[in-house]
Q: What sequence folds into this?
């Protein structure tokens, strides 16, 4: 997929967004956002008053009216920018699915129909070289499928009926063989479509936290409305005539237009950042939940460890050279095509033993690894090299193992590793240590999670000993050993009962209940349809480690929202000091010491505040779209930092900004 | 402020307040637990059980928030009607040695509303309007009841925070009974005896009359036989000379009422001069203890908050936030009053005296500033100096204290639940910044909670600003003013702030019950007290119910911190910012403008 990051200044996004900004002036759609709706009403009132009189200060009131309209337009622009970037991502996904045809199975034959005509339950046949017309489940056949259009991964994958690899995604291409697929979603309802809807305005629903925040912002707006109306009355009492456009200007400066204007952009941008990581969220709500998650369930295999166990060490028996053991181990493993076997060959190469070509070896008789013998080897030059489990080698040598080797075997087992014993004829040469290899950098990452208050739990089918050893090495907080799928579900329920929010990844059908139960369930794209339906996110790369990034994106979204809310409210202090003295000073010149910014004139003061209020929205669009930089720290340090930057900064910055604008517009003789 | 005695007293006051917080807090915790044990149990428990039996209260049956709120509303409505009826029928009832007439209907409404809501705004002069029966039964009754209701609501919201996945917040009737039997009445008995020991009166004698040593002549408005002012041909009032040679000395059951007036943050004076009257506040010690008793229960309730939520540090953090705001208020007020009036200083009056206008000489600048700050922080409203005569900035402090929401310790119970509403808002605004949806003590703050908190604050702003705006542009509103210009606006603003905040103190230049009987002030101020009280109690209880039903999220390093200096800064910041943003425009045309005009030579 084209998961590229669009530059914030990409003209392909900016130019349509400008057009959208004007379309979004439509009051019926703007009413969804009470703060901006009030701003628009204020702008309309000042505009009407402009033509009904107030001729003496026409130029001043015209500028106020214009800047009020700009305030609304800038907010619309922010939303349009976020939507534009989301759409650009979605378009890249959608491009893969135009003009697809399908061979639908009908009574006694096939008919060729457009992909958009397929309905849930239809059965189609896809041949090699054809595009799969929609999301579905393989009910017959096995084939290699190129999913690079969705995942960006060029290696083809196997899709076959039954089991955990039966789900196929619309837009991917069958490379070999033939698949019979039952379509599982109607057009417009695939997860891709749902995703596209999320970043486009029409279907976007406010998340619970956005609703709560909107209530607060509306409440503040009403409080300021009361303050302004009562101010008019106090003015009458005091003999000061506050003109309506000036009161409207003050109102718009005070109501939280900054966060009101950027709120939906922040939300869309959060989903958009997920898409850039190749994760599709099914709702904005799930992104929010990702920020709240405090327990991560991580599958051992694939998430914490690299796929399979690997040979990491040779432990020779007494009197045997390590080199000799390595050579024997390599010979014995040449016929072992399992990943474990190959890892032994690779490890042996580190001892300077070159890779051998089978044909060089002349009269060699290979004994391949089988599950019954649990042993592999080669008969070469009269010697029988064997490697296998301790039991198998014991049987092979027809007796006991040397004491030191028995000890090594016991020690490796108790440390969570798997011991393999190597023998040449009856002579036991030593042991090979096989163990899970923990992915690099995970321990650090988990440490940072701990600082953020997130607990990591490793899930594995291994026995307790093995699980404990890996858990220790990877630095997870807890582990669930010998886990069956239903244990996973039970664990999630238990954690949730204790008030925790749980995130997990899964791909199998038997993961589906747990995925559905988890607060954030990330299904692997390679997983079954059932898993994808149950989760609330899909990872197109099928990389379970990405769960960690999903959580970070969720937190970043919430931090950005909080930071800009704080900033927006803190801004009001300076605006008061700009506007209130300017409104009163005409009647009571004695109040001028309150004009702490020493703004040039009452008109320039009011205009500067209004301009600052509008321009700050534009200035903050990049921050809203990129998000506040996320640092994995404890809550107290994040809060201190953000309160300083966005709280204290939010109080101080407008003093500087308004003064600067005042200097500029005074120089330009605008007021 | 170079007054060592003042600094010393401020330090002693703060330390003593801190010292009583834990023991009283533990006591309150036991009282608010229906099964709590106290050493009074052997004596009081049987009485408590008997009360439950008589009223058919089932103490083990808890109420949901709606039922709890309904009980409070019904209880308040019935007791308010009772007081209204008693005041209207006062002339026909016993214990009226002064033969005082029935209280007028709008004044009776205002007074009944005011006392029911723990405001104790007094549109009347107590000694010349209320019979002993009215003082003791109609008014003093509410001093107890309204205080207990406030504490009960605080208990309910603390329970909501402390509990989880539970639908109930306690039993109002049990709370009401226990708060009276174990907290208010026992303390008041001891407290009243202490006040008597300081020289306060406590009797049922008719008022005494004393001959003054130096008779004075004063000009008063001439009245005709019907009691109406006589006017000349131009419509100006006709004045006549009168000689004052005697003084009425107030008597009556004062100490018993003053004890609960302070402890219950009621503040309604027995006399019109309130705590500046030598009988109502006889000694420096009585002054100190009265100030301490205002903050005692609100301060103890912060300890209860910590205790109940098993986060004592949070309780102390809230206490610290309140204390810092309190000290800031005292210092500003003290500084402004000590600086005095630049115009008088310019006339050669010794500036070291500060602004002594309207202050009791016995208390002086510091004790007046301290008392004024405490009484307005705590929605008490008792005064030992006239706030109206403070300098513009000195008077700004009490006004702002009230407008911030009466949460700097605040009224008994009311201070805590007001504070918790603001904490919910502070946590909601800043909570997101730690990267989680906001939570407070393990409870997610969601749309419903924000709605309730916002609604409460919105109503307060509406009542304070809206009524003031209405009054200041109407003839009846302006007619009540004693001063014009920005000071007049301050008087109006203070009145509606005080009533909405259930404080009850006043810029006394405002005459709310004018001689012509205009009822507008009485009615609007009465409404403001009701909005201020129940407009806060109902959302607060809704919040209690909502928080109690929520799941508890265990605390961890990623949890929003609600203890320590950071949280203190956050809470103070939110309160000051919301308050400042709401009231700055109004204040800038009232005390702030007055301040600048004073410095340019104009007084009002």
A:
């Amino acid at each position: 997929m084209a998961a590229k990051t669009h530059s914030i200044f990409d003209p392909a996004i900016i130019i349509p967004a400008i057009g959208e900004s004007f379309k979004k002036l439509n009051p019926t759609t703007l009413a969804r956002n009470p703060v901006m709706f009030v701003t628009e009403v204020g702008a309309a009132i000042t505009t009407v008053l402009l033509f009904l009189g107030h001729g003496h200060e026409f130029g001043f009131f015209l500028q106020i009216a214009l800047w009020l309209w700009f305030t609304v337009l800038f907010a619309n622009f922010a939303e349009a920018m976020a939507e534009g970037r989301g759409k650009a991502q979605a378009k890249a996904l959608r491009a893969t699915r135009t003009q697809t045809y399908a061979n639908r199975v009908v009574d006694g034959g096939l008919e060729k129909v457009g992909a958009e005509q397929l309905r849930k339950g239809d059965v189609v046949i896809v041949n090699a070289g054809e595009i799969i017309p929609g999301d579905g489940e393989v009910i017959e056949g096995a084939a290699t499928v190129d999913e690079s259009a969705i995942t960006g991964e060029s290696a083809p994958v196997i899709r076959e009926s039954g089991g955990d690899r039966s789900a196929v995604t619309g837009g991917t291409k069958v490379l070999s063989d033939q698949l019979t697929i039952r379509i599982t979603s109607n057009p417009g309802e695939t997860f891709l479509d749902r995703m596209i809807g999320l970043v486009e305005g029409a279907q976007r629903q406010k998340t619970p936290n956005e609703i709560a925040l909107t209530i607060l912002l509306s409440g503040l707006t009403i409080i300021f409305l009361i303050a302004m109306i009562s101010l008019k009355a106090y003015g009458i009492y005091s003999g000061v005539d506050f003109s309506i456009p000036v009161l409207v200007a003050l109102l718009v400066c005070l109501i939280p237009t900054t966060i009101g204007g950027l709120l939906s952009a922040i939300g869309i941008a959060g989903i958009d950042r997920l898409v850039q990581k190749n994760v599709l969220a099914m709702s904005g709500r799930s992104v929010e939940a990702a920020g709240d998650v405090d327990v991560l369930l991580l599958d051992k295999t694939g998430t914490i460890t690299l796929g399979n166990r690997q040979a990491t060490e040779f432990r020779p028996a007494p009197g045997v050279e390590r080199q000799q053991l390595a050579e024997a181990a390599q010979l014995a493993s040449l016929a072992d095509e399992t990943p474990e076997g190959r890892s032994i060959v690779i490890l042996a190469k580190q001892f300077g033993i070159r890779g051998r070509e089978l044909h060089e070896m002349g009269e060699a008789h290979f004994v391949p690894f089988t599950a019954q013998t649990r042993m592999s080897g080669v008969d070469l030059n009269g010697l029988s090299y064997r490697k296998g489990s301790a039991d198998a080698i014991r049987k092979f040598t027809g007796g006991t193992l040397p004491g030191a080797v028995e000890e090594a075997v016991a020690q490796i087992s108790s440390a969570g590793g798997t011991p393999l014993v190597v023998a040449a004829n009856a002579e036991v040469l030593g042991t090979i240590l096989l163990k899970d290899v923990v992915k690099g950098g995970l321990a650090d990452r988990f440490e940072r999670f701990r600082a953020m208050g997130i607990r990591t739990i490793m899930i594995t089918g291994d026995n307790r000993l093995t699980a404990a050893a890996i858990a220790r090495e990877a630095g997870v907080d807890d582990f669930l050993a010998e886990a069956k799928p239903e244990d996973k579900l039970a664990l999630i329920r238990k954690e949730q009962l204790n008030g925790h929010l749980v995130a997990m990844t899964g791909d199998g059908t038997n993961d589906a209940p747990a995925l559905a139960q988890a607060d954030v369930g990330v299904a692997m794209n390679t997983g079954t349809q059932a898993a994808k339906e149950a989760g609330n996110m899909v990872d197109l790369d099928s990389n379970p480690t990405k769960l960690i990034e999903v959580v970070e994106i969720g937190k970043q979204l919430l931090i950005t929202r909080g930071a800009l809310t704080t900033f927006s409210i803190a801004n009001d202090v300076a605006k008061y000091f700009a506007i209130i003295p300017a409104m009163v000073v005409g009647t009571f010149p004695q109040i001028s010491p309150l004009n702490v910014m020493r703004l040039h004139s009452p008109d320039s003061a009011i205009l500067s505040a209004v301009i600052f209020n509008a321009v700050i929205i534009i200035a903050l669009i990049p921050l809203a779209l990129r998000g506040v930089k996320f640092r994995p720290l404890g809550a107290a340090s994040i809060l201190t930092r953000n309160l300083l930057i966005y709280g204290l900064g939010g109080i101080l910055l407008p003093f500087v900004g308004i003064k600067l604008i005042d200097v500029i517009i005074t120089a330009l003789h605008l007021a | 402020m170079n007054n060592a005695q003042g600094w010393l007293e401020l330090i002693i006051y703060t330390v003593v307040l801190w010292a009583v917080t834990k023991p009283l807090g533990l006591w309150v915790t036991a009282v608010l637990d229906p099964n709590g044990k106290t050493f009074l149990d052997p004596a009081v428990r049987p009485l408590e059980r008997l009360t439950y039996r008589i009223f058919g209260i089932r103490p083990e049956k808890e109420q949901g928030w709606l039922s709890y709120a309904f009980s409070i509303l019904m209880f308040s409505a019935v007791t308010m009607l009772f007081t209204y009826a008693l005041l209207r029928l006062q002339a026909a009832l016993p214990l009226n040695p002064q033969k005082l007439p029935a209280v007028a209907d709008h004044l009776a409404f205002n007074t009944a509303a005011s006392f029911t809501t723990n405001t104790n705004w007094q549109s009347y002069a107590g000694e010349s309007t209320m019979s002993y029966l009215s003082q003791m039964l109609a008014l003093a009754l509410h001093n107890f009841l309204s205080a207990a209701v406030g504490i009960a609501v605080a208990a309910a919201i603390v329970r909501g925070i402390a509990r989880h996945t539970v639908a109930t917040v306690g039993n109002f009737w049990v709370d009401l009974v226990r708060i009276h039997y174990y907290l208010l009445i026992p303390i008041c008995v001891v407290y009243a005896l202490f006040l008597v020991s300081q020289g306060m009166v406590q009797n049922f004698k008719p008022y005494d009359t004393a001959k003054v040593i130096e008779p004075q002549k004063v000009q008063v408005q001439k009245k005709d036989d019907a009691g109406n002012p006589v006017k000349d041909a131009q419509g100006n009032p006709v004045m006549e000379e009168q000689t004052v040679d005697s003084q009425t000395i107030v008597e009556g059951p004062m100490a018993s009422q003053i004890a609960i007036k302070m402890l219950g943050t009621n503040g309604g004076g027995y006399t019109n001069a309130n705590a500046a009257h030598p009988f109502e506040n006889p000694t420096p010690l009585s002054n100190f203890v009265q100030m301490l008793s205002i903050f005692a229960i609100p301060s103890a309730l912060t300890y209860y908050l910590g205790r109940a939520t098993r986060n004592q540090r949070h309780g102390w953090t809230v206490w610290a936030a309140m204390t810092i705001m309190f000290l800031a208020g005292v210092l500003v007020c003290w500084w402004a009053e000590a600086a005095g009036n630049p115009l008088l200083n310019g006339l050669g009056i010794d500036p070291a005296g500060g602004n002594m206008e309207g202050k009791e000489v016995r208390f002086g600048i510091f004790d007046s500033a301290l008392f004024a700050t405490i009484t307005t922080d705590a929605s008490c409203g008792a005064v030992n100096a006239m706030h109206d005569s403070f300098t513009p900035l000195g008077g700004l402090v009490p006004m702002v204290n009230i407008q911030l929401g009466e949460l700097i310790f605040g009224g008994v119970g009311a201070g805590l639940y007001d504070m918790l509403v603001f904490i919910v808002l502070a946590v909601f605004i800043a909570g997101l910044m730690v990267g989680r949806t906001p939570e407070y003590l393990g409870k997610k703050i969601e749309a419903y909670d924000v709605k309730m908190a916002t609604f409460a604050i919105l109503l307060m702003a509406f009542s304070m600003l809206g009524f003031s705006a209405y009054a200041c542009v109407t003839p009846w509103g302006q007619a009540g003013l004693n001063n014009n210009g920005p000071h007049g606006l301050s008087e109006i603003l203070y009145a509606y702030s005080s009533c909405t905040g259930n404080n009850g103190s006043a810029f006394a230049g405002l005459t709310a019950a004018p001689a012509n009987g205009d009822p507008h002030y009485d009615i609007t101020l009465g409404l403001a007290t009701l909005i201020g009280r129940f407009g806060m109690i109902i959302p607060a209880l809704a919040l209690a119910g909502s928080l109690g039903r929520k799941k508890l999220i265990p605390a961890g390093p990623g949890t929003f911190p609600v203890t320590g200096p950071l949280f203190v800064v956050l809470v103070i910041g939110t309160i000051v910012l919301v308050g400042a943003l709401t009231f700055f425009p109004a204040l800038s045309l009232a005390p702030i403008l007055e301040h600048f005009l004073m410095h340019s030579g104009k007084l009002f």
Notes: The first strand of chain A starts at residue 101 and ends at 106. Chain A has a mean pLDDT of 84.
